[in-house]
Amino acid sequence: MLNSFAQSKKNSIPVIPLMSSDLESWLATQNDTTKNWVRLHSFTAQAGKFILIPAPNGTVAMVLLGIASVEDIWSYSALPLSLPNAHYQLVDSLQNISQHQACLGWALGGYQYDKYKSSERQPATLEWPVSVNRPEVEQLAQVIFMIRDLITTPAEDMGPAELAKTAELIAKQHQANYRCIIGDDLLKQNYPSIHMVGRASSRQPRLIDLRWGEQGPKITLVGKGVCFDSGGLDIKSASNMLLMKKDMGGAAHVLGLGALIMSAQLKVRLRLLVPAVDNSISGNAYRPLDVIRSRNGLTVEVGDTDAEGRLILSDALTEACSEKPDLLVDFATLTGAARVALGPDLPAFFCNHEETAQNLIHHAQQQHDPIWRLPLFTPYRKLLESKVANIHSTGESSYGGAITAALFLQEFVTPKTPWIHLDLMAWNSKNSPGRPVGGEAMALRAVYALIKQKASAALLN
């Protein structure tokens, strides 16, 4: 439960958000004591910075918070775990700040991962503004917390079985249909690539399949669920293996987004597909240059056992397209190349449908949820040619790795299916307000807004 909000209380301390351009005009309305205090401490209303203004009796009279814009989210996140543990009230001195964004930022600023040790402190509480849709903010914050918790949990406690149990609990909560194909049953039901990648682990591979909703557009979400990635026989170095508990970040996003859609009761026919595996090493581990016949019949030559995510996604994408969804979205911590190109905080996305791509960009901008489109550059498809199979999983070139990975996945998506592929970090490598080191939800709000729009548009038609 969120513990950074409370009902209205007497003697709540006002929090006044200000952009740097508005600071002087605000100060002009204040007494000399406040003016001198602000100037003495060189407060300039820089985004995310705040100052406590004392009352004559030594208590806090008010808090000034610097924000980047009226739609800012993250500046508010600096407050809940930094302010004195008291009750606060948002005062809109600018008359047009987004109180929804402010409350979301405050909620996210109260997040602490406490599975293995107690939280250091309780967050300061904020009074709910009357104009804010509380259930909407709480649902979104809770889903982001769930995604962060799933990704941050060590692989020992978040393997394929535990990931499947999480999906089953979500299904029960929302009266969704849940199915899971495990171990050798993957071969019997023609998911050979998922089985091949996961067969070397003592923890059996599986395909999680959740369905919900009976009307509206078909929305299918696919998430990469590599619960730990050793690199397989092309083993990773110690430094590159260190964070590989987060390689199920795509699966965490899909489960969280699905839970958000179901909680909001969007009028869609939702399907979640999560191939959940460990990429381990044993006597039956798959090998470089092995050839596998994938679910859609294409033969795939394995270029690198450390490029396992695209293999398990290929079977799941094939199954997803069998039902001709109106929108197919996959989330995956897929390539280091995307991080080299765009850094850790900016997810790359690829899309085969121009209108869908532009709509997603629009919603990302509206939600202040950054993404960047990379091209499905067809001439690079030749880099995936194989002398012995229909396609090579990685190709021999080290250039354009995020693009060639997306082109590989596109081979398993039917051309008429609007498809978005998100290649993301799913991890904060440094602390910043509301975003502590650990698992992170990325592009979630943008994709949710896109799906919400599609559901609303279907109701009007």
CATH superfamily of the largest domain: Zn peptidases
Would you count the extended β strands for me?
20
Which regions have little confidence, pLDDT < 50, spanning 5+ residues?
none
Q: How many domains would you count in the coordinates?
A: 2
Mean pLDDT: 96
Distance between the termini: 37 Å
The gyration radius over C-alpha positions equals 24 Å
Structural classification? alpha/beta
Shape: elongated
Strand portion, in percent? 15-25%
What's the architecture of the largest domain in CATH terms? Answer: 3-Layer(aba) Sandwich
Largest sheet: 9 strands, mixed
Give the topology.
Blueprint: E1 5-6, E2 13-18, H1 23-27, H2 32-40, E3 50-54, E4 60-66, E5 87-90, H3 99-109, E6 125-127, H4 134-152, H5 160-173, E7 177-182, H6 185-188, H7 192-198, E8 206-212, E9 218-223, E10 225-229, H8 238-241, H9 249-263, E11 269-279, E12 291-293, E13 299-301, H10 309-321, E14 327-332, H11 336-342, E15 348-351, H12 354-367, E16 372-373, E17 391-392, H13 401-410, E18 419-423, E19 427-428, E20 438-439, H14 444-460
Parallel strand pairs: 1-6, 2-4, 2-5, 5-6, 9-11, 9-14, 10-11, 13-17, 14-18, 15-16
Antiparallel strand pairs: 3-4, 7-8, 8-11, 12-13, 15-18, 19-20
Features:
alpha/beta; Leucine Aminopeptidase, subunit E, domain 1; 32% helix; single chain; 20 strands; 14 helices
